[in-house]
Design goal:
With 400 residues, the protein is of the alpha/beta class. It has 10 helices and 18 strands. The protein is globular. The structure holds flavin-adenine dinucleotide.
């Protein structure tokens, strides 16, 4: 590219994570000339993810081949509650959203390959540094690519730049993230572990205030061992790493393992935002705050929403409509139909669980620990709660 050259595309996607590549794939597939810019030099790396998800969303987003990145299918989850017995959830019980453990760097590259297969172009080591706006409409970005300043123009920009999206701020959609909705995470990938790697392990409460410790198994006695802590509950002079080190030091089975890499990052677990669009601009994935507020998982929702964003972006190009009203009617309406109720429900459950007193929580766990979870499903659990703790059930019902 020559100095001062201006690039022009129909659709510009900022960020080549799962949401951005999926948006690019479906924009290209529906006829839009699409460019993805990514600030890192390698898509998917370094991995900033616990790498747990399910298989349930793949068909919806037309992904047929997952063998390369789906490395472990777990039998279930073992959940440890403070002061109560461990719960083992197996088989069809799947409300934790944890069913498979993946290689995120391979998934992200595969999603980019699918987009490229549909005709999308990619530029690595290229960061958006500001939005170009004309008469209030977003018309592209100024970017820094391999040390050069470049201008990239597009009819519509999709901000897929993740947690703390700058595109969202530049576009006037957000100011800042509320601290009470941020979970601060730290994770080791550990090798040499001596635990049953057919299960995921979740330790609620005591080791991770306002969050949980996760152990997501990988091949060869490895696992992602990490935690998320509510930002506002982190003690002064302590970091999430300190909490994780304390957890590992307290468990013989984890002390044997060694960390072979570490990652830190944030996840936003608030309610769904009221608006993720502006004239000529759409946000998608973590940038649009669609993470599951209970699990902190954002890959599935980001990809599902990315498909809609890509299809609508191509539709905008065909119809020559890029205004906020059009995006609200077509993009916001479609993704909200798909995801909003579930995000709201999970947000309210999370808030409710946080507000239940320690005594009530222990009582609830005591009830659940009496159920034969190997054979049960959600209905059986709710029946048990209704029988033994009708007052808690009443509170739970008020949330649905
Ligand atoms: C420690 C941790 C553990 C997690 N564990 C899980 C889990 O187990 N399961 C799960 O489903 N989710 C998990 N999540 C959340 C999950 O990682 C995100 O929801 C997911 O990555 C969101 O995808 P995305 O495409 O929206 O954004 P991202 O994957 O964050 O991609 C954004 C991309 O934009 C690029 N970018 C940013 N700014 C610019 C710019 N100015 N110009 C160009 N490019 C830019 C970034 O480099 C990045 O590649 C975890 C998150 C953390 C931090």
């Amino acid at each position: 590219m020559k100095k001062g050259e201006v690039l022009k595309y129909d659709v510009l996607v900022v960020g080549a994570g799962p949401a951005g590549s999926t948006a690019a794939r479906f924009a290209s597939k529906n006829g839009a000339r699409t460019l993805v810019i990514e600030k890192r030099q390698e898509i998917g790396s370094p991995v900033r993810c616990g790498e747990a998800t399910t298989l349930s969303w793949l068909e919806e987003v037309e992904i047929e081949d997952h063998d390369r990145w789906c490395v472990t299918t777990v039998k279930g989850a073992r959940i440890f509650f403070p002061g109560a017995k461990m719960l083992e959830l197996v088989g069809k019980f799947d409300t934790t959203g944890v069913g498979i453990v993946i290689e995120r760097d391979i998934l992200d590259k595969d999603l980019a390959k699918l987009a490229i297969g549909e005709g999308a172009e990619y530029m690595l080591k290229t960061s958006a540094v500001s939005l170009i706006k004309e008469d209030g409409k977003v018309c592209g970005v100024m970017a820094r690519s391999m040390g050069k300043e470049i201008e990239i123009r597009a009819d519509i920009v999709i901000g897929a730049d993740g947690f703390e999206s700058q595109v969202g701020r530049w576009g006037g959609i957000y100011k800042s993230l509320p601290p009470e909705d941020i979970i601060s995470c730290f994770q080791y990938r550990m090798a040499g572990l001596d635990i049953d790697l057919d299960f995921t392990y979740l330790y609620l409460g005591e080791f991770a205030p306002g969050g949980f410790v996760w152990v997501f198994p990988k091949k060869d006695n490895q696992a992602n061992v990490g935690l998320g802590i509510k930002l506002s509950l982190i003690e002064e002079n302590k970091t999430p790493k300190d909490y994780l080190d304390e957890f590992i030091a307290s468990k013989e089975e984890f002390k044997k393992g060694m960390a072979i890499d570490m990652v830190a990052g944030g996840v936003e677990v608030g309610p769904p935002p009221s608006n993720v669009t502006a004239d000529g601009l759409m946000l998608v994935g973590d940038a649009s705050r669609v993470v599951n507020p209970i699990t902190g998982g954002g890959v599935a929702n980001g990809v599902r929403q990315g498909k809609i964003a890509g299809e609508v972006a191509a539709q905008c190009v065909r119809e020559g409509r890029f205004d906020h009203d059009y995006l609200k009617e077509h993009y916001e309406a479609r993704w909200r139909d798909l995801l909003e109720n579930e995000i709201w429900r999970n947000y309210m459950i999370k808030e409710k669980l946080n507000s239940i007193s320690g005594k009530a929580f222990a009582k609830l766990m005591e009830t659940l620990s009496k159920v034969d979870l190997k054979e049960s499903n959600l209905a059986v659990l709710l029946e048990a709660i209704q029988k033994e703790n009708p007052e808690i059930m009443e509170e739970l019902q008020s949330m649905f």
